Amino acid sequence: MIALLLLVSVMFIPIIGVPLTLISATDVTKYKYSRIFVIAIYYGIIGFFFVPQVGTDLYRYYSNSVDILRGRSFESMISSMQRMDLFFIVQKCLFFIVSRFKTNQMLPALTLFVIYFIAFFIVIRYARKLKYTRKQTLVAFIIIVAIFPLSSLANNTRNILAVALFDLGLYLELEEEKIVPAYILFIASMSMHIAAVPLVLVKLVISYLYNLKSRKLVKNLVFLIVIIVISVFLIKNGIIDAVLDKGISYFNGGESGSDLQQWFEVADKSIIEKVSKLLGGILDGIMILSVAERLFFGKETEKEEFLNKELLIDLAVFTGISLFLVFRSGTTWFRFYMIGLFYLPMFLKYSSDRKNNLIKCTVLLIWLGLIVSNILLQIYRLKTQADIGLIIKSVMFIPIFSLF
Predict the structure, then answer these.
(1) CA distance 26 to 137
(2) Torsion sign, CA atoms 363, 369, 372, 374
(3) How far is residue 287's CA from residue 289's CA, in Å, rounded to a whole number?
(4) Structural contact between residues 348 and 336, judged by C-beta atoms closer than 8 angstroms
(5) Which of 6, 54, 177, 196 is the most buried if burial means most Cβ atoms within 10 Å?
(6) What secondary structure does DSSP assign to 144-203, as a single string?
(7) Phi and psi angles of residue 229, each rounded to the nearest 5 degrees, phi first
(8) Angle in degrees, CA 61, 324, 142, rounded to 5
(9) Helix ranges restricted to H, 26-73
(10) What is the DSSP letter of 53?
(11) Tens digit of pLDDT for each residue in 188-203?
(12) Per-residue pLDDT, 301
């Protein structure tokens, strides 16, 4: 009943309803997911009014995928798919579902709904595990709202959905030991975007090496078999070759005269992209230093009160790759940056837990600066990548009237 009232307040008076819903979701004694479901709906509405500019990835998804599938049956779509296309059935199903609606705007709407629900879900679960106060949980929510790059998430549908599914799989496997749902999510993430294939393979290798130390022979054997089976399947279906070709192309900045090279050149000259890299690099550095401190200098009891140790290693590897790519041409770094971003709110509490008041204040000031900078960056990106006036008009003042 309360969740329904909160939904009504969000739909009619979002400027009051959204803060109230976030505050209600911080109740550490209840953790009712209906609250974050309401917030995810609101972000879905924002996505609905995120009208892409011509030439963006989202615009190409409309013209090259959704519009082509509109009017076709599911059987027709399946029968026309090549062997490699079948591997990306989750991606194709997403576009097919969106094509059933009269408007393509359901694509960014569904994208933002799923991403923000997963992000808030992970925070809620960690708030329970780490015994956050309501204030600490609210701060974690604010980090998601402030630092998640909304316009980039809406534009990069396939890649960011694959990362979100991968991150949720990491959480379920390593924190809650829900193996079957986790591996379903890993498979779904690879089927959503080819960029998730190396993520899953790297994660499996890390798991195998990590468990070697524990000398759990059965578990190690299972991981080894899974790695071999998945690798053979990917090789036989040409997925590994495609991953390598695409990875080398992105790493080298694309072939001479290609669209990729031209995009990288534009991105490298853009002041806003340089600022994004700077802020992203700082956040990557904070996470890597925090992980290193926890793993190498923290007491065993302290380690158990934070993120799972294997998960910390995963985040250190992917965040390290992101930090390395920050110094390379283009925007490839962003693909790895988003992996750590889903767990970033938990690092604020950890990095600010300092006995020395001077260090504590310095850390908090750095975080405050990053939050404010990212908010300003988000506003600028929305202004340049979509009709920010339409978004404000449609979602800030009685959004239910804008929808109907």
Answers:
(1) 6
(2) negative
(3) 6
(4) no
(5) 196
(6) HHHHS-HHHHHH-HHHHHHHHHHHHHHHHHHHH--HHHHHHHHHHHHHH-TTHHHHHHHH
(7) -60, -50
(8) 65
(9) 33-48, 57-61, 67-69
(10) P
(11) 999 999 999 999 999 9
(12) 46
The whole-angstrom separation of Cα 199 and Cα 49 is 31
Token pair 């949720």 is found at: 168
H or E, element range at 120: helix 106-129
Q: Give the C-alpha distances (Å, rounded to integers) separating 150 from 6, 108, 228.
A: 23, 10, 37
Task: For residues 276 and 183, give the distance between their C-alpha atoms in angstroms, rounded to a whole number.
Answer: 32
Q: CA 150, CA 135: separation in Å to the nearest integer?
A: 24
Rounded to the nearest 5 percent, the helix, strand and coil shares of the chain are 80, 0, 20
Rg (CA), the chain: 21
Contact 14, 42 (CB under 8 A): yes
End-to-end CA, the chain: 24
Query: What pLDDT, in 10s, does the model give residues 73-110?
Result: 888 888 888 777 788 999 999 999 999 998 999 999 99
Three-state SS for 265?
helix
Cβ-based neighbours of 303, under 8 Å, separated by 6 or more: 294, 295, 309
Query: How many whole angstroms separate alpha carbon 162 and alpha carbon 323?
Result: 20
Instruction: Return the structure tokens found at 28.
Output: 């550490």
What does the alpha-carbon distance between residue 29 and residue 381 come to, in Å, rounded to a whole number? 37
5, exposed or middle or buried, with CB in 10 Å at 0-12, 13-18, 19+?
middle
Which amino acid, one-letter code, is at 268? D
Q: What are phi and psi of 228, to 5 degrees?
A: -65, -45
Which H or E element spans position 225? helix 217-236
Tokens of 157: 């549908």
Mean pLDDT in runs of 10 for the chain (404 residues)?
84 90 83 85 94 85 91 86 82 94 93 96 90 88 92 92 96 92 95 93 88 71 82 84 85 73 82 89 88 74 67 93 90 90 82 69 83 90 85 83 72
Residue 232 corresponds to which tokens in the numbers above? 């053979």
Angle at 183 between CA 180 and CA 186, to 5 degrees: 155
Contacts of residue 30, Cβ cutoff 8 Å, sequence gap at least 6: none
In angstroms, the CA 341 to CA 280 distance is 10
Integer angstrom CA distances of residue 249 from 261, 312, 378: 9, 29, 29
Q: Tell me, what's the pLDDT at 337?
A: 92
